[in-house]
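If you are new to this repository, start here. Below is one unmodified record pulled from the training split, so you can see the exact layout before writing a loader.
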Amino acid sequence: MKTFLTLNAKASLVALAMGIAMLLLAWPSYGMFFFLVMLWFLSISALVTFAGTTYKKKKGLYEKQRGVKNVIANGLLPLILVAMFAIFRLFHSGTLELFAVAGFMGAVSAVSADKFSSELGVLDGEPRMMFSFKRVKKGTSGGVTAFGLLMGLFGSLLASATVLLAPHIAFVVVPRYTIFVLALIAGFVGTVFDSMLGYFEEKGSGNKFTSNFFAAVGSSIVCIALLAFFA
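And here is the target side for that same chain:
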């Protein structure tokens, strides 16, 4: 196996190990749900990576394969939140389980939004740098376009909608559609935050992996905070 979707061999093995860990940690109630959500993320990420391949290759923006760092940047926080969900399940804390699910959905929505924004945003419009609003080359970290932000929102929508298929166990007090809306908002906030961090990347602070990870953290916090406010 050379690649799986857009992951190289090592990254595929790491992703598989993380997916199996999620499956087992939350088994039987939510294990399959968490596993399939991450598989869905990989699938839609591959689709947008391959979108506009000819144009991206011409501009030097095409990145067919991702490595272990990409997997960790996008999957570590969801794995941590699944582990927290498992711990809360041991103590029969339904409210905390719900917050763990919300945090998980916020994180996955953010990395999905960022993937759509970055991969599709380069196909249209002239990016401007966050904060300075100066025109920059396509593919520059921190550069955004209106089209890219719109695609980020769409990516967040596709990811957050998966919660509507989640098991009912944790949704005694708050319905699934509430988490869907909150994760959708949080995911979009996450991709904007990622672009803000991209601005500092260009200044020499951090890289795309740290930006992805902390954008997911920020989105997860936003989703949990919104849930705490509306619940």
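Two things worth knowing about this chain: The longest strand covers residues 3-4. The chain has eight helices and four strands.
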